[in-house]
Amino acid sequence: MDGNGRWASQRGEPRTFGHRAGVRAARRVLRCAHKHRVEYLTVFAFSQENWRRPAQEVSLLMQLFIRTLARETTALHRNGVRLRFIGDHSEFSDVLRREMDRAVEVTRHNAELKLNVAVGYGGQWDIVQSAQRLAARGEEITAEAIENGLDTHGLPAPDLLIRTGGEKRISNFLLWQLAYTELYFCDTLWPDFDDRDFSAALSWYATRQRRFGRVPESA
């Protein structure tokens, strides 16, 4: 979800104005995903690299995260959304971690849409922490063992990655899991992303022939 800051700057507003608009965009996309019968949706809300941003911006992001969870969890539960958080949360405040735990507990039995929120997440961290645990236990490091230790264990590999904001890179997101994912890049800044953009991404995905390294069936 990229482009909050640029969206705000274009309007002569502080970056936090864009982050608040980004929350509204996330709400829209959840509705779109539900309408299109998407079963799993993973959003990259806060990366490990984001800790390097100005302290005031990070603090405001954390406060926004707490308020959003407090405000939205009931609605998510009512609409059958199950929440899960992936990433390293050791640097988060006790208040935020409690709010995250509460949201997970409230929605844990829902099955309409599985929403995975990547916060404090980094793809390199995910691979390293899995390998380190295997090494500490003296277990063989294999692809299967690493995958079983990832923070996304139990989730299917993504079919489609949508990157907004015009950037053409993955930015340390789900590096292991994206091995055979279709990558879709669009110029729309995240606060403007809506049903039309989401539908366009799904339509593009429908044209792809996924081979997973195999020879095409028509060959």
Description:
There is one protein chain. This protein is an alpha/beta fold and 219 residues long. Helix 4 links the parallel strand 2 (81-86) and strand 3 (113-121). The strands form 2 sheets. A 3-stranded parallel beta sheet has the order 1-3-2. It has a two-stranded parallel sheet with strand order 4-5. The mean pLDDT is 95. Helix 1 (4-10) packs across helix 2, helix 2 packs parallel to helix 3 (55-78) and helix 3 (55-78) packs parallel to helix 4 (94-107). The longest helix has 24 residues, at 55-78. The chain is built from 7 helices and 5 strands. Helix content is 45%, strand content 14%. The chain starts with a helix and ends in a 13-residue tail after the last helix.
Quick recap of the structure?
Helix content is 45%, strand content 14%. The protein is an alpha/beta fold and 219 residues long.
- Main structural class: alpha/beta
- Summarize the helix and strand pattern as letters: HHEHEHEHHEEH
Shape: globular
Low-confidence stretches: none
Rg from alpha-carbon coordinates: 18 Å
The N- and C-terminal alpha carbons lie at a distance of 37 Å
Number of helical elements: 7
Share of β-strand residues: 5-15%
Total strand segments: 5
Mean pLDDT over the full residue set: 95
Percent in helix: 40-55%
Strands in their spatial order, largest beta sheet: 1-3-2
Largest sheet: 3 strands, parallel
